[in-house]
Amino acid sequence: MAGIRAYLDYNASAPLLAAAREAMVVALDVAANPSSVHAEGRAARRLIETARRDV
């Protein structure tokens, strides 16, 4: 076991799962006010509501 290290200091941050990273990339591409009634706003609102449901 000599030479094998375990990093256990994830107090402030930790690596993202690939699925979480992809969800963030998708959400960051939607730059609209989720309170607006236009199509972009509704798309942003859907992302938020989907995330709330999934959590």
Task: Sketch the major β-sheet.
Answer: none
Mean pLDDT rating? 91
- Regarding quaternary structure, how should these chains be classified? single chain
Q: From the helix content, strand content and strand pairing, which structural class follows?
A: mainly alpha
Written account of the structure:
With 55 residues, the chain is mainly α. The chain has a domain at 18-54. It has helices at residues 18-28, 39-54. The protein is rod-shaped and about 60 Å long. The N and C termini lie far apart (38 Å).
In short:
This protein has 55 residues and is mostly helical.
Features of this protein?
55 residues, mainly alpha
Fold blueprint:
Elements (H helix, E strand, L loop, with lengths): L17 H11 L10 H16 L1
